[in-house]
Specification:
This protein is of the alpha/beta class. It is built from 8 helices and 8 strands, in the order E-H-E-H-E-H-E-H-E-E-H-E-H-E-H-H. Helix 2 packs parallel to helix 3. Bound molecules: 5-O-phosphono-D-xylulose.
């Protein structure tokens, strides 16, 4: 089943609790953590995730767009994340493996994320132990960017690898996902859609979630 995960990057941070309730018909909540180093933007950190955990039972899909994410795995797990995604480009492979080991120890689901420059095959060393692969269809850092059509190839390639090595693994796509692009993203093999501006930019976020489901 396809899951819809609204990204709170497009929410009103002053009214975050209200904006989280507005998307309660979605399956997951996507939480964008940015450090101003791995990406040229700074968003939220551990205390905010802790507060979000207190105001919703939704599954918290926490996307760490930070350098050396192994340093923060335990803290985000304790704050209430249900799943953590670490970028393959954010550290040496041995420390990415260590981050995944820590996630396992902390009881959170494990995911790796790929920037658009990264080849699908980069997931192979980790794939058998993953709960999810996240393919970015924009350069990470900001909401509201245009969907990168060429990333449909990467989605297809990751889907083939997942089918071959770990069919239970989810494939999430993030960036420029809207009712216009969702159909091709799903046709390419995604089963989890992150949408920020398409949901929070709509007059009725619940209707936008329903439109994504229809697509
Ligand atoms: O991680 C990111 C951006 O780095 C995303 O989660 C975006 O926030 C998605 O926003 P839209 O492209 O859907 O507006």
């Amino acid at each position: 089943m396809v899951k819809i995960a609204p990204s709170i990057l497009s929410a009103d941070f002053v009214n975050l609790e209200r904006d989280i309730q507005r998307v309660s018909s979605a399956d997951w909540l996507h939480v964008d953590v940015m450090d101003g180093c791995f990406v040229p933007n700074i968003t939220i950190g551990v205390p905010v995730v802790q507060s979000i955990r207190k105001c919703t039972d939704m599954f918290l899909d926490v996307h760490l767009m930070i350098d050396k994410p192994v340093r923060y795995v335990e803290a985000f797990a304790k704050a209430g994340a249900d799943l953590l995604s670490v970028h393959l480009e954010a550290d040496h492979p041995t420390r990415i493996a260590e981050a995944l080991r820590l996630m396992e120890q902390c009881g959170v689901q494990k995911a790796v994320a790929l920037r658009p420059i990264t080849a699908a095959s980069a997931v192979l060393p980790y794939l058998e132990q993953l709960d999810m692969v996240l393919v970015m269809t924009v350069e990470p850092g900001f909401g509201g960017q245009a969907f990168m059509e060429h990333q449909l190839d990467t989605i297809r390639q990751v889907r083939e690898l997942i089918n071959q090595y770990n069919p239970a693994c989810r494939l999430e796509v993030d960036g420029g996902v809207s009712p216009k692009t969702a159909g091709k993203v799903i046709a390419a093999g995604a089963d989890t859609l992150v949408a920020g501006s398409a949901v929070y930019g709509a007059a009725d976020p619940a209707a936008a979630i329903a439109a994504l489901r229809e697509a």
